[in-house]
């Protein structure tokens, strides 16, 4: 198993590929901009999950757990990736409306995360591979502890906790007004749900979030997106059926190349410029990704590509302006 991250002396690959693709296919710009149909998709899933939660109030706990894993987890993970879409302002034209819809999409998740996610996720795009700024990268502590199959099973099962808590330790950011609004809306919703339907519906929602972020097919994208499965490549796309439930987040090279294209149109990007993606390794099964991550002794948390700030174009520009951005 790797004892250290894979160091790159070059900038992340997406900025260069973006320039090359736009030079060859300027019509790609026609794909830019929000997709308002996302509002109806999000509203439908939120209402469906709330109805499902209300219906479990009289079920036994074994049935609630099974329903959370085989049904609720798919819906809550869909909402998590809807929040990802909203973090890029890809449903409405104005950031304000995207933030509000993100707080609404957050309600069935049970735990406030929409606003905080946006803060850190945009850093992931701007500073890909820079430790301390790109908090998607596992910490050195995770790499040193997760060393065998047993520890990787535990890590994958609880990876949503690592994903959510890592930023607070690696790059803490002070909360603001929007975080307070996100928290207030979530607490009011959770309290109302418990008051009118009891604790089981809320437990169902939180279980759906937790189980859907661990040993679950939907959670395979956490590993498939940037863990190095082929040396020299740091971002991977997934071309499989679960894209239908995940806002096409599997088109991950495409997404990083053009974050301004909504998930509903990413497949068109690949159709317009297929030669830019044909030579890249990709995944066809998120279940296989999880299985391989757990069982392959050469793959672990250190299988990520990292770079120094001076090898990031945005960091260089900020430094030229006298704004130091370091990991």
UniProtKB/TrEMBL annotation:
GO terms for biological process: ceramide biosynthetic process. It is an enzyme of class 1 (oxidoreductase). Pfam families: FA_desaturase, Lipid_DES. Residues 1-38 form the Sphingolipid delta4-desaturase N-terminal domain. GO terms for molecular function: sphingolipid delta-4 desaturase activity. One of its GO terms (cellular component) is endoplasmic reticulum membrane. It is found in: Endoplasmic reticulum membrane; Membrane. The keyword Lipid metabolism applies. It catalyses: an N-acylsphinganine + 2 Fe(II)-[cytochrome b5] + O2 + 2 H(+) = an N-acylsphing-4-enine + 2 Fe(III)-[cytochrome b5] + 2 H2O. Belongs to the fatty acid desaturase type 1 family. DEGS subfamily. Its EC number is 1.14.19.17. The chain crosses the membrane at residues 63-84, 96-117, 153-172, 192-215. It comes from Selaginella moellendorffii. Sphingolipid-delta-4-desaturase required for the biosynthesis of delta-4-unsaturated sphingolipids and derivatives. It is a multi-pass membrane protein. This is Sphingolipid delta(4)-desaturase DES1-like. Keywords: Endoplasmic reticulum, Lipid metabolism, Membrane, Oxidoreductase, Transmembrane, Transmembrane helix.
């Amino acid at each position: 198993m790797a004892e250290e991250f894979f160091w790159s002396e070059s900038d992340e690959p997406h900025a260069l590929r973006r320039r090359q693709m736009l030079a060859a296919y300027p019509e790609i710009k026609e794909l830019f901009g929000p997709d308002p149909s996302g509002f109806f998709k999000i509203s439908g899933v939120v209402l469906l999950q709330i109805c499902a939660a209300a219906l479990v109030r009289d079920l036994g706990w074994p049935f609630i757990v099974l329903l959370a894993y085989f049904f609720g987890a798919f819906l809550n993970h869909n909402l998590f990736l809807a929040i990802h879409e909203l973090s890029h302002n890809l449903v409405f034209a104005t950031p304000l409306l995207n933030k509000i819809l993100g707080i609404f999409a957050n309600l069935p998740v049970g735990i406030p995360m929409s606003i905080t996610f946006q803060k850190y996720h945009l850093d992931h795009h701007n500073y890909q591979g820079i430790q301390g700024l790109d908090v998607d990268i596992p910490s050195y502590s995770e790499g040193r502890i997760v060393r065998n199959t047993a520890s990787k099973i535990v890590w994958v099962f609880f990876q949503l906790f690592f994903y959510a808590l890592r930023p607070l330790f690696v790059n803490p950011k002070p909360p603001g007004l929007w975080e307070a609004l996100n928290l207030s809306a979530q607490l009011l919703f959770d309290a109302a749900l418990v008051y009118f339907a009891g604790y089981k519906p809320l437990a169902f929602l939180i279980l759906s979030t937790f189980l859907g972020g661990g040993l679950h097919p939907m959670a395979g994208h956490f590993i498939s997106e940037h863990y190095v499965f082929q040396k020299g490549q740091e971002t991977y796309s997934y071309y499989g059926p679960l894209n239908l439930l995940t806002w096409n987040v599997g088109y991950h090279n495409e997404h990083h190349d053009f974050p301004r294209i909504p998930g509903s149109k990413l497949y068109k990007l690949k159709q317009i410029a297929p030669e830019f993606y044909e030579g890249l390794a990709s995944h066809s099964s998120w279940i296989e990704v999880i299985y391989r991550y757990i069982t392959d002794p050469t793959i672990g948390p250190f299988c990520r590509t990292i770079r120094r700030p001076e090898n990031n174009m945005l960091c260089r520009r900020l430094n030229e302006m006298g704004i130091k951005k370091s990991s």
